[in-house]
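Lab notebook, bench 4. The sequencing result for the construct came back, and we need a structural model before the next group meeting so we can plan mutations. Quick request posted to the team channel:

Model the 3D structure of this chain.
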Amino acid sequence: MRKLIYSMGVSLDGFIAGPNGDIDWSAPDEELHRFHNRQMREVGAHLCGRKLYEVMAYWDTADENPSAPEHELEFARIWKEIPKIVFSRTLESVGTNARLVREGAGEEVARLKEQPGKDLAVGGAGLASTLIERLVDEYRLFVSPVVLGGGTPYFPALDERIELELVETRTFGSRVVYVRYRPVEAGR
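Done. Here's the predicted structure in C-alpha cell form:
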C-alpha cells in the first residue's frame, strides 16, 4: 500500500501562509531546495488543491530560464515529470501531466493508496485538511524560525487528537528544522 505524505513549510506557530497569504518567509535556500528535490524524486504522484496547483504552475516553465540556479532547474524537471492530481470544483482544465478530480477527494485518495507504486504527496492545507484524520500516513514539516501570528494553519481543527511519533529530524544551515512524524499505531 502506498503512503500518503503531507509535507509543507510551516512557521513556528503552525501556519503555512501568513495572514495575507504571504509565503516569502518559507523560500528554501540551496541546501533545503536540494533536500526537497531528493524527496520529490521519491513521489509517484502529487495531489494538489486549486490554490497550490496554481502556485506550483510556475515550475511548469521554470526550466526554460537559463539563468536559474541548477537546483531550481532540477526541481522544475522533477516537477514536470511527476503526475499531478488536482482536486477542484472551480477549475475548468489542468495542464500537461495533470488530471482534474471534481468530487470525492477522500474516496479517490483511498483508491490511489491501494494501487501499486511510489508514495503519494499531498500539499496545501485545504486539500490536506479533508484527508488528515483518516488517510495521511506521514507528516513532514519544515519549521521556519518565524512567528506569523495568524494565517493558514498546517493542521485544521480536529474532532479527535492524533498521536504521533517522531521518525526523523534534521536542522539545515538556514535554521529550518525538518521533522517527520507518523501516526502512532493503535495498541503501541
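The first helix runs from residue 30 to 41.
Will bring this to the meeting.
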